[in-house]
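1st attempt posting a full record on here, be nice pls
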Amino acid sequence: MSETRIGIPDYPFANPAPLVPPEEWAELRRTCPISRVRLPSGDEAVLLTRYRDVKQLLLDPRFTRTLTAEDAARINAEGTLFSMRDAEITGPFHAEWRRLVGRAFTAKRVAELRPRLEAMAGHLIDEMVRQGPPADLCAKLAFPLPVWAICALLGVPDADRDRFRYWSDTMLSLTRYSRAEIDAAQDEFTAYMSALIAAKRAAPGDDLISDLLEIVGTLDTGLTERVLLLTAQGLLVAGHETTTNMIGKMVAMLLADRRRWEALLADPSLVRTAVEESLRFDANPGFGLPRYLGEDVEVGGVTLPAGTTVICSMGAANRDEEEFDRADEMVLDRAPNAHIAFGVGPYSCLGQALARAELRSVLRELLRRLPTLELAVPVEELTYRQGLIVGGLERLPVRW
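the predicted structure (as tokens):
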């Protein structure tokens, strides 16, 4: 492992332009795929940018994103990321936890939700059309649809969905919020979810929180009410934040080159592969997944010592020329497409089936209802959300 010619770079890297990946991705894959980086906290970590290295570490069940060890790198200065929930849902209990929580995200349950997803997407698009162009697609469609979906699965009323965005942002803050702001928001979020769980205990419904409440405290699960609270908070945040951002980026990518949109209009059967390629091609997927090495491990011919914090960049890995032909091109009919946008292995994204269903529903309904959709500003004027661990656009102005 060596340093790049500019020394130890600051991470995460900046995008040189909207929808353009950081230059460091290709440079590091070529010259230093196992590189030291400096995190927003000031601590150092090791960054993996090559597909095979990232996949190897993510598949290894010995290493989790629990960063509570004394010698683990802090991601942000406040030390609030990847600590609380992950410290309690790890080890042997993690597999059982995934089995329990996975009830909300089975293929059958997502399939049952799909018609309602498409109807809600259509409703939101119709409302956007009624209000007239230009419109911010992020605010009118990309945010409300995933919030509605995850609230429906968890049994959370969506009347307070605007509050969820602020609570989510504080949980995912790299540099945007102070420790005092984060603590205050999380106290509010915890109070809200605690009251909701109490209400579900009094009057259960057909939802995941009610299902899990039935087994809280039983000897064979290890599921405590504390873990249930953290699970509900984590799923509510992860279940809408990442998909919200991906909807905006996907539509922006497809509209940035009109040939892509026209290809989908000519052949709507490409929607499924276009969604997968959008996930692979994402130039700003966010921070990546950290792993703490509790023992020495060899990656890419380099021995990383115990105590190392490693950042797995799925975004950089998904652009790896050794894994994907024409890696820097958006190929709408790419198949197979072995991207790792949702991670791989025992800690891969639980909600990926739901996310895929939402992305496909949005794209199908937009193509059907708004074939003349286009960006309302030059692509160069799009701006990314700053200071968060997830990547997304601040706004996506469109017209039709």
